[in-house]
Structure formats: structure tokens, C-alpha cells
Amino acid sequence: MAEFFSEWAYVPVVLAQVFSSPMVLVYLLIGLVLGYTVGVIPGLGPTMGMALLLGIVFKLVPLEGMALLIGVMVASLSSGGITASLVNIPGTSAAAATTLDGYPMTKQGKGRDAAGLSYMSSVIGSILGTIFIFLIQPFVASIALKFGDWEVFLFCLFGVLICGSLAGDKPIKGWIAAAAGFFLAMTGADSVQSVVRYTFGRTELLSGYDTVVAMIGLFGMSEVFYVLIKKEKKMEYKQEQGFPRIRLDILAKNKLNIMRSTLVGLWVGFIPGVGESAACWLSYDVAKRSSKTKEQFGKGNPEGVIAAETANNASSVGALIPALALGVPGSATAAIFIAALFMMNHRPGPTLMLDSPGILAQICVLFLLGAILMIGIGYVLTRYVIRFLTIPNKYLMPIVTVFCALGAYGSTYTWSSVIFVLLFGLIGAVMKLYQYPIAPMVLGLLVGNIADSSLRRALMQYSHNPLEMVTRPFGIAVIVVLVIMFILGVKTNITQEDVEKEIEE
Amino acid sequence: MTKRKERIEGAIVLALGVVFLILALMIRNNPIKLKGWVNIVAQAKFLPSVIAVVVIVLGVKMLIDAFRKPAVSADQVSKVKQIEIEGVVDNNPEDKSTSQFEPNAWITVLIIIGYFALLPLVGFRIATALFIPCILLFLNLKNNKLIIIISVSAIFYVATMFVTPLVLGLRIN
Fold this sequence. Notes:
The structure holds two protein chains of two kinds.
Chain A: H1 2-5, H2 11-20, H3 22-40, H4 45-57, H5 62-87, H6 99-107, H7 111-144, H8 149-162, H9 171-185, E1 188-189, E2 196-197, H10 211-229, H11 248-253, H12 255-270, H13 276-290, H14 302-318, H15 320-326, H16 332-343, H17 352-355, H18 359-385, H19 393-412, H20 415-433, H21 439-461, H22 466-470, H23 473-504
Antiparallel strand pairs in A: 1-2
Helix pairs in contact in A: 2-18, 3-4, 3-5, 3-18, 4-5, 4-10, 4-16, 4-19, 5-6, 5-7, 5-14, 5-16, 5-18, 6-7, 6-14, 7-12, 7-14, 7-15, 7-18, 8-21, 8-23, 9-21, 10-19, 10-20, 12-13, 12-14, 13-14, 13-23, 19-20
Chain B: H1 3-25, H2 38-41, H3 46-68, H4 74-86, H5 105-122, H6 124-139, H7 146-168
Helix pairs in contact in B: 1-3, 5-6, 6-7
């Protein structure tokens, strides 16, 4: 137990590591600039940006690779709200709710205020969220260590179950996507009795599908196909000249709103499978209900921008809680992040902090530094990088295709990966066209094998009396907690849909 | 989505579930046997079979929903289609009419598939040298700005085939 809490003592060591190795800061900066860029370009976004980098992070020193990914994660979620505010097009789905008040602010001639508030709220959400998980994670991990195979199976199962909520009004589609991911995850020789499944005699499938390749295909290549198939909209934007204006007075007036939105974001992030886009809607709804100026919401109320943007960044950090403690990602970005941790020889799960001492401190310090650096980067780049919006996708997508191929090939150095990335890309594109969410499929791919081997190991352990396994007090407690989480997750989704419907009306 | 399309979608999901089930049942039994009914549940084929059954049930549910659904007018269908294609939340109703499928989309997809098929045969350098100008030319036929396309192709090629591998230490041929 004490080992978990010693994580807090690693902060000075990690700070010394980061500042004594300038390349870590350089990669963090590169990640922030890249993240900012993919965040402002609609159609790219954090998952695609991070998935593309997966193919290259394993070439870097682990801390540098982690810095690069965290940079992209922090910046892309922060910058998505800038385009939402300035041109009414959310750069990422997590910034959808920001359009409601951000764009009306721009139309009122307060575009610089909206952009400044949008990214500063994101920065605050990241900072507060990081401090929270840094304090709470050792407790979560010490509880997770008590999990047996049965409890891990239950957690994976509920993660996949709750994925249905990612599909909006059609949870069936979310469950089908998750089941397909689960099914594909079982390809190869199983880890319990080495029974070979779905390899069709292909030796390259014996170790299953590489999750990195699958993610590059599902998030990267699928977007390429989808964007190229769709007819591109001509984008017109009138940007106010000058740097964004950071209104500290407005932020100070919204202290309570910020705290509330951070907690909402963290909570939504913690529920596996719900993700950042639900966080912004729920937080917007909570802020609207609690506001003294409800009638101003949707007409350019800064409170709406602050609530949506604080929550989506806090949610991305909150999604790391189950990801790090149990290896079950709370969102698509967390799924990519834990895949990257595996590549860096860390094993996300209850023993992560025991096997890799200082890992939590490393992640949190990089998140905090990333958020702090984002203040300067957002300030400088908002004036210029917004011009990326005018680059037609026709020019961008061919280069993204080549990067996807390079990333897939670089992760395994086999041509089969290149073919698999194409197949996963086509699967992802068909899913997008027919409105099947991709994140549940990725979650299924990541946890499918863990769930299968955990269930079978638990059954073998309790083969003399399986009832003993089901009635373990800790297992029952986990079931109760997970059922509550499931109900709350579904409720969260219903609230999100209600808000969206209300706004549409 | 129309009733007919929803029925087809449900049937496809149902067929997918059946394929999953057949594949799951083809998995061989565990080499080590356990006593009693636990042996059935601990088989490598157990969870895949359960998932296949879940997909079949969901497919049946989709089909039942599609058959029960009331008929939708053509006007409503076109409105829904526009929103489906949009993909992003947009509060400007006037923008939605501009969104449609790209007419030559399938040729673009075929060019990309061709690129991936060519990669194992000729390697990255040659395949990419052919792919980038080809796709840029095809996607920008109407613009006909040959100089821009050649310049962009050259920049993309150098960035992807030389700079990126050099910076990251990737070995490509």
C-alpha cells in the first residue's frame, strides 16, 4: 500500500528528469503544436493525431514518447473549442457544446474573448483534473490491487456494456461495434491454454491483431476514406484580427462553474466508454441549470463556453483513472494512451505503479507542464494556425494516408501490418457511414482478450466451487458499484441527448 | 434511414452474428479438461460463442424494429440523410444542404487500396512516388493547377519518405 503513496514523492525526481533532458520538453512542445493543429482542423482531432503518432513513439525514449502523446492530447482538446467559437465548427467532437455560446460571442464581435476563454478553460480543466487524479490515483490503485480475475472480467464486461451509450440514440450500434471488437480481440493463440482462434492458418495472426495497427486503421485511415467520400463544404470564416484576449475577470467570476465542470468532466471520464464529447454536453447542461442567467445560454454566455471546455479536458484526464488502475480505458484517447504505455514496456493495470515506480508522477507532471505551456502556445498560434482551416482536405488526406502506412509498417516492420491498417480503415469507414461508433470497437479490441483470459483463469481457479467465485464479497461490491455506474452512465447519456434535442428545438 | 435500408442493415448484422457463431464453434476444445460444467464455460470457444449470440440477438432486434417502424415520407428521409452525412454538429441550417457524397469517391478509395496493394510489391519509395501525384491530380482535376500539384507532391514526398524516417530512425525501402 505504501508503495502507491510513494508516487507523490517522485515529483521532484520527475521534474529533475524533465528539466535535465531538454528533448523531453522539445517533444512536449512538438506534441502541443501538432495537437493544436489537428485540433483546429475538423476531421482530424485528438484520436487520429495520437493514433498516427503511435507508430513512432516506440522509437523514442519512453519519457519523450509520453511527452509527445500528452502534448497532442492536451492541445488538441484545448484547440477544438477555438474553431467551435470562431467559425461554428467544432475541431473535435468534444468541443461541440462550445459552439452554442462561443459562436454567438464571435457574432457579437467578441471572437477574441471567446477564443481566449475557450482555450484557457481547457487549460484550467487539464490542470485541475491532473491534480485530482494525482491525489486520488494511489487510492484507486490500492483498491484495484485487490481485484481478482473475476473482478477484472466484470469491469471489462461493464466497460463494453456501457459502450452502447457512445452510439447516442442507438445503443444497439454501440454494442454491435463493441462485440465486433471483442470478437477480433480473440484472434490468435489464447493466453490460457494456447488454443488458436480465427487465424485461418495465417502465422502472422498467431499473436492477434496489433492494437497499434488496428487503431491507426480505425481512427486514421477510416477518417481518410470518410473525408474523401464526403463532399467537402466550402468554409468561409471571418476572423477578428489580433491575438486572443484572456479575460481573467470572467474566469475569476466563474470559479464555481469551473470547479463544477471539472468534477463533471472527471466523473464522465471515469465511466469507461463514455468519453469527452458526453462530458461537454453534460457539463453545459449542469452549468445552465445552475446559472443565474439561464436565459443568456445559447446567446453568447461565457459561462457556457467555460463549462464545456473545462469539462472536456478534465474528462480526458479522468479517463486515465480506470485506464491506469485497471487497463480499461475511459475514452478513445485513453485507449490510445494505454496502448502507447504497453509499447513503452509499462503494463497499465493494478500493478502499474509497483512495476513502474514514478509513472503516475511522470504522467501528471507532463500533463501539468503541457497545460501550462499551452497557455503560451494557444496565445501565439490562435492568430495564425486558424488559417489551416482553409487548406482543403484534398491536399491533407493523401499525406495522412502515407503517414498511416508508415506508422503501421514502423510498428512491426511487416507488410501484413500495412494490409491490416487498410482493412481496419475500410471497416472504420463503413462504420462511420452507417453511424456505428468506432470507440466501442477499440475498447472491445483492447479488453476482449483481458476479459476472456480473466474469466477462464477465474473459472479454473474456482473450478471446485464456482459459486464461491461469484459470491466473493469484493466481487459483489464491484458488481454493485458497476451496476450503479452503468445506470448513471446511461442517465448521463440520456441527459446529453436531452440537451442536444432541447438545443435543436 | 428508410425502412428497407434498416431491414437490410438488420439482416447483415444477423448474418454477421451467424458467421461469428460458426467461426466460434469451429474453435477446437481446450487441451486440458476441467471437471463438471465449468469445463464448458472455460472453453476457448465459450466467450466468442456468447458474443456471436449477442450479435444475433441484436440483429434480430434491429430487424423487428425495422419491421415495426412506421413509414417515413421522402421529405423526412432526405432531411435525415443530410444530417447523417454531415457528421459534425452544426447549428447553421443553411449549411446542411451543401453536404453530399463526392461523385468520384469510389475511384479515390480504389487509388488508396491500389497504393496499399503496391507497397509490399515495390516498397514505400516507389509506391509513394506514384501515389501522391496520382491522387492529388485526381482530386484536383477541376482546379488544373499542375504547378501547385507538382510542388505539393514533391514537398509531401520529401517529408514522408526522407525527413520523417530520418528523424524517427524508421527503416523503409
